[in-house]
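Case study B.
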Amino acid sequence: MQELHDDKLKKLEETANKTRELIIETLLEAGSGHSAGPLGMADIFTAFYFHILNHDPKNPDLPDRDRLVLSNGHICPVRYVSMALAGYFPVSELKTLRKINSRLQGHPHRGSLPGLETTSGPLGEGISQSIGMALAAKLDNKKYHIYCITSDGEHEEGNTWEALMFAAKNKLNNLTVIIDRNNIQIDGFTENVMPLEPLRQKYEAFNWEVLEVDGNNIREFVDAIGEARAVFEKPTVIIAHTIPGKGVDFMEKDFTWHGKPPNKEEAKKALAELRTLQGKIKSEHE
Amino acid sequence: MLNPYLKLNPKVFDKEVEQRAIRDGFGEALVELGEKNKDVVVLTADLSESTRTEAFEKKFPERFFEVGVAEQNMAAIAAGLAVSGKIPFISSYATFSPGKNWETIRTTIIYNQANVKIAGHHSGIVTGPDGATHQATEDIAIVRSWPGIEVMVPCDAIEARKATIASLDHKGPSYLRFTRDKTPVITTEKTPFKPVQTFWTSESAKCVIFATGHMVYHALLAAKELEKEKINVLVANVAQIKPLDEKTLLDCVKKTRYVVTVEDHQVMGGLGSAISEVLAKNLPASMEFIGLQDTFAESGKLIELIEKYKMDSTAIKSAVRKVIKR
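Model:
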């Protein structure tokens, strides 16, 4: 991973903002899907696709590519947008999301779209699949790294903890888990639905290295990835505190935006906000 | 008579017929595959001895993964290994895998057509004294509806070894169904391995018995005893339930008109259902179904259980007599 200079950081932040605009437009066109998670994770996906990953959008099956596994498949709009912007497929294809004959399934399907590492949607299965990839890499003496993005809510699944025990037992230092700690799930705030705290201590008790960052701060996140790569004795988790609905004032921190798309009016309002950079500039940029 | 072309065990009807556990054939095959193919890896969920993966573990410790009592984790790890070029075998009791982890397998293995081999052990009431919690009697039904899976149910330990080795020819998910107790050895090393083969033949058969797994032995006993009553039947061993060899199956039914299916499984969704789907479309025939009749079984010895739940040769003979009167 290259050093992150200020001019590159500025570009990444612009890309993240463009990603948010495209998420809103894509969801409006789809007519269903999830808003809050994708907006909250736009900075992290931008950091992965445009700075962290060793990958080649024109050669998605590159054997030595880093693997980016998305465990909580429902936030796939952000992954699709990042992939399109990175050059995996045309941006115009985003408008096929959730429609018939599309490669962009409502929840990601590995067999449908090159560049997806797994199929996901049913929760709690991503870390286990990432473990399989990490074991294979070790058996084959490959140096690629496996990153697994998870939601906080899916830590209510027993499978998640089965996976954490196994990864620690096998000292899988080529695996890094990222938790989108946005504190919301479909039925409400995680701490009301099923308290997850103390999350850090739980991971530590399971023999994981734990880092915590502001998940909407690209520099902080990139630095944490660098730190995680330097840990040799254990797998590492990065608890990324994010703001659900980030960038759109009326969606931020409101769990009712977990599982619905904006309507036409709401999308217009959201886009105006994103295009004026939260009112910092007067005319909408395009 | 026993099909002379298939080189079956000539002592199959002896009182002292050799008995071996079907799962033993799986264990032998794993070691053989491990030697031949460096991509073969094996995972178990705290059942390495009883799923017969121990020998592989000893020989190839670096390719053996103990996941503990965590069947969902085992399935999804296998999916990750498979999309990375490995050929994982996952092994547990069938009530737990593919039972408990059914959705995990569906999403991560089947929908991805990942090259994972699922070994379901302790299937059927032949699991015996452990009781119904451990007797998988719905596993064929729950795996058969998955698109793209191959389902194999070997009739003895020798066929289990051949089926396990043959599963590598299918570059996608396979289900292999194994049983615990020792059961008679029906085939020999020289018997060909094919999806459907007629083990008991007759020129004047009125009825065909399609049997699978260790129940093939009981179907053969019934066929031999029925001969004395001048009722001639065919017994076909269905070693592969999906995809079904429809041609061989229909050839058998064209000759006989009447059908009895025999399986150590619920009659709903298993072998009988699979065959009736083919016949209803192509060649409707009167059928009887031997298996568990929409009930759980209980603890007991195999011989006691198949008698009580009407799956022994006496029950099979009654089913044949009943169906040919229609």
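The longest strand of chain B covers residues 258-266. The remaining cases will be described in the next quarterly update.
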